[in-house]
UniProtKB/TrEMBL annotation:
Biological role stated in the UniProt entry: Provides the (R)-glutamate required for cell wall biosynthesis.
Reaction equation(s) it catalyzes: L-glutamate = D-glutamate
Binding site for substrate: 7-8, 39-40, 71-72, 183-184
Catalytic residues identified in the record: 70, 182
The name this protein goes by in its record: Glutamate racemase
Keywords: Cell shape, Cell wall biogenesis/degradation, Isomerase, Peptidoglycan synthesis
Taxonomic source organism: Candidatus Clostridium helianthi
Entry GO MF terms: glutamate racemase activity
Gene that this polypeptide is encoded by: murI
Keyword Nucleotidyltransferase: no
Pathway: Cell wall biogenesis; peptidoglycan biosynthesis
Entry-linked Pfam families: Asp_Glu_race
Family (UniProt): Belongs to the aspartate/glutamate racemases family.
EC code(s) of this entry: 5.1.1.3
Amino acid sequence: MKIGFFDSGIGGITVLYDTLKVLPNEDYIYYADTSNVPYGPKPKDEVKKYILNAIDFIVKQGVKAVVIACNTATSVAIEELRSKYSIPIIGMEPAVKPAIEKNKDMNKRVLVTATALTLKEEKLHNLIYKLDNEHVVDLLPLPGLVQFSEKLEFDEEIVLPYLKDELFKFDLNNYEAIVLGCTHFSYYKDMVRKLVPSNVSIIDGNIGTAKNLKRILKEMNLLNEGHGNITFYNSGIIVEDKAELDRYNRLFKRMDNINEYN
């Protein structure tokens, strides 16, 4: 049985990339809702409908677990999905906890970046309320990074000016950590690194999600059934076109480049 991965678009590839390191002997389905991306600017009810339809499709493929590799989808629909299906549904949320735990100097702050919809959702605000006793968390939407990544736009001359305009709204010398709270944002970790002071940590939830998936599958005795094969679907249509498969391969290479940089 395969493991399903879902994202509004191609952001979840950053999570799948780390998962392949942790669980190389599994087979995967990757479902990108390319017909409806981006989710961030859309109404919550509309987004929830897209998510429920997509996960229903994935589950019908006979998967043993589903990773919601999308912070926005997790915040909008995770509870409903878990109540509907008996297989594990693993969600993602912005890595606020490790960022705050890293913040030993309470004179420093934590900047959480995400989509506008994630930042508005009660789930995130409850998490921050629970963890942020010193009120050090600030929020910043970065919708442009979703748009850039969906176009496979990784040219620094184009992306860096956008990041500068947004990040430099804050005095980054006052920050301990920046949280990349959307899986699309991880494609730009190297560019964020170039803009922030060297002592500022850049954190996402990708490897933590991969390790959580492995732990759950191990507990259920469901590990190591495959060969690392991936089947891609774009909004329910299997991807067989060479140009589109090459597009996905470029994303994995992008992650390789970021790892080399770091």
